[in-house]
UniProtKB/TrEMBL annotation:
Source taxon at top rank: Bacteria
Stretches assigned to the HTH luxR-type domain: 135-200
Pfam family, one: Response_reg
PANTHER family referenced in this protein's UniProt entry, alphabetically: DNA-BINDING TRANSCRIPTIONAL ACTIVATOR DEVR_DOSR
Official protein name in the record: Two-component system response regulator DctR
InterPro entries recorded: CheY-like_superfamily, Sig_transdc_resp-reg_C-effctor, Sig_transdc_resp-reg_receiver, Tscrpt_reg_LuxR_C, WH-like_DNA-bd_sf
Residues modified to 4-aspartylphosphate: D54
SUPFAM superfamilies for the chain: C-terminal effector domain of the bipartite response regulators, CheY-like
């Protein structure tokens, strides 16, 4: 994954420069693009952080870029910079999944705070997804029998009951249970239930 950054896309050079300076002064890593097309040319699925898009630009608008990125599966939080007349468009973008919009002229500190919040949200989301992928990989490593034993352990059944249910010896249940705990990286049934609940 690339270093998380604020990606600013604005066709107004003065605004790009001012925003770049503002965020750098608050130690927020920044990358800037002069157009939606330029950003798309450099877009990679592992870009992380947050996008700040001007809603109105020459060529492809911020809204069109937002739609295109959603089609590409980009899930980075998106904030729009809007002029007064663009608020209805920004509201419709929120309904499609944009995170926020900020009306010009904006308060510098408020804008930086919102971006930092969006970047933290992106980092949390990626961390959660990485954790889920790890649990999914560990689940995939279980044999069919280990999976059956795990489901019954989580249902709160005792080893003797599991042995009867599956028609195997209690000793075999204990071996499978130990393998499940080892592969899933847990020490107790409660811990196992917790990580499985966390990934749904």
């Amino acid at each position: 994954m690339s270093e998380p950054k604020l990606h600013i896309v604005d066709d107004d050079e003065a605004i790009r420069d001012a925003l770049g300076w503002l965020f750098q002064s608050r130690n927020v890593p920044v990358a800037v693009w002069p157009s939606a097309e330029a950003f798309l040319a450099d877009y990679a699925p592992d870009l992380a952080g947050c996008l700040l898009l001007d809603i109105r630009m020459d060529g492809m608008s911020g809204l069109e870029l937002f739609d295109r990125l959603r089609d590409l599966g980009c899930r980075m939080p998106v904030l729009f910079l809007t002029g007064h007349g663009d608020v209805p468009k920004a509201v419709s973008a929120l309904k499609k999944g944009a995170r926020d919009f900020v009306e010009k002229p904006f308060n510098d500190n408020d804008l930086v705070d919102r971006v930092i919040e969006a970047m933290a949200f992106d980092a949390d989301q990626r961390e959660r997804e990485a954790g889920q992928a790890g649990v999914a990989a560990r689940l995939a490593s279980l044999t069919q029998r280990e999976r059956q034993v795990m489901d019954l352990v989580i249902a709160g059944k005792l080893n003797k009951v599991i042995a009867d249910d599956l028609g195997i010896s209690m000793r075999t249940v204990e071996v499978h249970r130990a393998h499940v705990f080892e592969k899933m990286g847990v020490k107790t049934a409660v811990e196992l239930a917790r990580i499985l609940a966390a990934v749904g």
